[in-house]
């Protein structure tokens, strides 16, 4: 794994040393950022189910101002800290070991707003419709914001959740899908 573009282009990232996380491949990550960027002029990111932090770190490298990383696995949190420290991004990030739904509620109580939200839960373990509805209920998505969902290619993804609409779905190989909502 590596940072694909931006300030930290080419820098390697550590992956989580456990089978409980599934890193986003460089090919998928590059494609995602071509669809939503590829570069940014500020903004805030929520990387939920962050794993190694690869998606949030890529966004920071490409110009996003801040990122909140959330994962429930202790090894994932340790890996995020290692990657953030290695790239000297500490001032731009917050890292939380928490259940995703509790993290969304806590962010809502803090009245946080995110321009980009990455949802990459364990495949077939969460309802994307429910996750997106929670994001919207807690008013976490900034005006004009984007939600990126990485999912099993066979999963049914809703075309609309409340006031946001699916704008693009791509499949990579036989098992990876990416859906983008605005």
Descriptive notes:
The chain is of the alpha/beta class and 182 residues long. It has helices at residues 26-36, 54-61, 74-86, 100-109, 128-137; strands at residues 44-48, 66-71, 93-97, 114-119, 141-152, 160-161, 164-172, 176-181. An 8-stranded mixed sheet has the order 3-2-1-4-5-8-7-6. The two termini are 28 Å apart.
Summary of the model, kept short:
The protein has 182 residues and is of the alpha/beta class. It has helices at residues 26-36, 54-61, 74-86, 100-109, 128-137, and strands at 44-48, 66-71, 93-97, 114-119, 141-152, 160-161, 164-172, 176-181. The two termini are 28 Å apart.
Strand and helix layout:
Layout: H1 26-36, E1 44-48, H2 54-61, E2 66-71, H3 74-86, E3 93-97, H4 100-109, E4 114-119, H5 128-137, E5 141-152, E6 160-161, E7 164-172, E8 176-181
Parallel strand pairs: 1-2, 1-4, 2-3, 4-5
Antiparallel strand pairs: 5-8, 6-7, 7-8
Mean pLDDT: 95
What spatial order of strands do you see in the largest sheet?
3-2-1-4-5-8-7-6
Total number of strands: 8
- CA-CA gap between termini: 28 Å
Alpha plus pi helix count? 5
For the CA atoms, what is the radius of gyration? 15 Å
Features:
about 180 residues; eight-stranded mixed beta sheet; 5 helices; 8 strands; globular
């Amino acid at each position: 794994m590596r940072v694909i573009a931006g300030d930290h282009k080419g820098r390697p990232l550590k992956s989580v040393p456990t089978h409980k996380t599934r890193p986003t491949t460089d090919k998928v990550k590059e494609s995602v950022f071509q669809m939503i960027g590829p570069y940014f002029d500020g903004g805030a990111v929520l990387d939920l189910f962050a794993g190694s932090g690869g998606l949030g770190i890529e966004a920071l490298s490409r110009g996003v101002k801040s990122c909140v990383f959330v994962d429930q696995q202790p090894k994932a949190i340790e890996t995020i800290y290692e990657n953030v420290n290695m790239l000297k991004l500490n001032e731009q990030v917050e890292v939380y070991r928490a259940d995703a739904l509790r993290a969304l509620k806590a962010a809502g109580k803090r009245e946080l707003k995110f321009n980009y939200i990455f949802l990459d839960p364990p495949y077939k373990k969460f309802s994307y419709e429910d996750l997106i509805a929670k994001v919207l209920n807690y008013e976490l998505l900034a005006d004009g914001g984007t939600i990126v969902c990485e999912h099993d290619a066979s999963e049914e993804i809703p075309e609309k959740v409340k006031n946001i609409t699916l704008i693009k779905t791509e499949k990579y190989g036989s098992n990876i899908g990416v859906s983008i909502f605005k």
